[in-house]
Write a structure and sequence with these properties.
single chain; about 280 residues; alpha+beta; two-stranded antiparallel sheet; 11 helices; 9 strands; globular; disordered N terminus
């Protein structure tokens, strides 16, 4: 038997914008969004209406999303999962088929439908990192996306640091703290963070080539525990929780998240054995 979604279960742009405002999204502010549209539920007008609701709530503000591309790296968790159990020849075939990063055209499928909708919107600006780019819409988009150094995933020469400087808000739209990119900036701000090598496909002089570089070893395997502690009363941070569509969503200042993460990671990872990456870019 086929079931249909009742009209009352479909969320509308105007109501979504109202819920975002009720949650505390600042008009004319700067907002970094991580989204799970499956948690939000069906939206009348689809993903464009959800992006529109965010822009309605922001007014003349700036909307930012991650546009990461781990698909062009052979040191990323996605690649390692993809080639697990394959022989050398099959692995090489996978590597040979990886497209080089192009900020104008490279899709970011692992970032979800909302991020892709923002990236593809007219007027969107994308930063230039070949693995951990961001995309933005709004008056500060170009400023925020500029100067993303290709050997700095999510540190001081990335849009995250610019968002920190501007006291941006972070919206976890139906997602958990395990996907909170802001915590990665905290990894850069611990004393002597561990480093590792990364490798990805880029275009140089019009030719496809592999590029290897060193950066902080990103690790989100304990971000859920970090986030649970961050959201507890008494941390000095304000984490607002509310309904957006069908989702339970959270809103907070990026500065609060980064500052808490740097202290928490310093205390909890000191002397701990190195972990494998989960969803972190690599």
């Amino acid at each position: 038997m086929t079931t249909t979604t009742a009209p009352s279960d479909v969320h509308h742009r105007s109501r979504l914008a109202g819920q975002l405002t009720e949650l505390g999204v600042e008009r004319d502010g700067v907002l970094l969004v991580h989204a799970s549209m499956s948690a939000v539920g069906p939206v009348s007008g689809g993903i464009r209406a959800m992006a529109g609701a965010l822009r309605d709530a922001l007014g003349h503000g700036t909307l930012v999303v991650p546009a990461f591309t781990p698909e062009n790296s052979d040191t990323s968790p996605q690649y390692l999962n993809r080639v697990r159990g394959l022989g050398d020849r099959a692995r090489e075939a996978v590597r040979a088929g990886m497209p080089p990063f192009d900020p104008a055209t490279s899709a970011a499928p692992s970032m979800g439908r909302l991020a892709e909708a923002v990236r593809l919107s007219e007027g969107a600006v994308r930063s230039g990192h070949p693995q951990t780019s961001f995309a933005a819409l709004g008056p500060l988009a170009r400023k925020l996306m500029a100067g993303h150094r290709p050997d700095c995933h999510l540190g001081e020469e990335s849009p995250l640091a610019r968002l920190y400087d501007l006291r941006a808000q972070v919206l976890m739209l139906g997602t958990g703290f395990d996907t909170c990119t802001a915590f990665h900036l905290g990894e850069y701000r611990v004393p002597a963070p561990p480093r590792r090598s990364y490798r990805c496909v880029v275009t140089a002089g019009g030719r496809r080539r592999w590029w290897e570089y060193e950066d902080v070893a990103l690790d989100d395997s304990d971000f859920a525990a970090l986030g649970a502690d961050f959201a507890r009363p008494g941390t000095g941070a304000t984490v607002r929780t509310g309904r957006v569509g069908s989702s339970t969503s959270r809103l907070f200042r990026i500065g609060d998240a980064v500052d808490f993460a740097s202290g928490w990671l310093t205390a909890h990872r000191a002397g701990a054995p190195a972990r494998g990456l989960c969803h972190s870019p690599g």
